[in-house]
Design a protein that fits this description.
Blueprint (H helix, E strand, L loop, with lengths): L12 H25 L14 H11 L3 H9 L1
Protein name: Inner membrane protein YhaI
Keywords: Membrane, Transmembrane, Transmembrane helix
Length: about 80
C-alpha cells in the first residue's frame, strides 16, 4: 500500500509546472513554423492534442504553403 507522500494519491504540484514547461518548449517552435509557412500560428496549439499532432505534422509537411505561393507571386 502506498503511503501519503507527494507521489501518492494526490497530484504533485511540480507535475503541472513540468507539463507547462514541456508544452511551452513544444508549442513555440510549432507556432513559428506555422507562421513561416503562412498558416495561423494558433495551429501550433494542435500539437498538444494526441493524434491530431500527427495529422498537423503531415499537413504542414505535404501541403502547399501559402507563404511559398505568395513569394512566387512577388517575383
Amino acid at each position: 500500500m502506498m503511503n501519503e507522500s507527494m507521489f501518492g494519491s494526490t497530484m504533485w504540484a511540480g507535475h503541472w509546472l513540468w507539463m507547462l514547461v514541456i508544452a511551452t518548449l513544444v508549442v513555440i517552435p510549432v507556432y513559428r513554423i506555422c507562421k513561416r509557412a503562412g498558416y495561423s500560428g494558433w495551429l501550433g496549439l494542435l500539437i498538444l492534442v494526441p493524434m491530431v499532432n500527427l495529422i498537423l505534422l503531415y499537413f504542414i509537411a505535404f501541403s502547399d504553403w501559402p507563404a511559398s505561393k505568395k513569394g512566387a507571386q512577388d517575383e
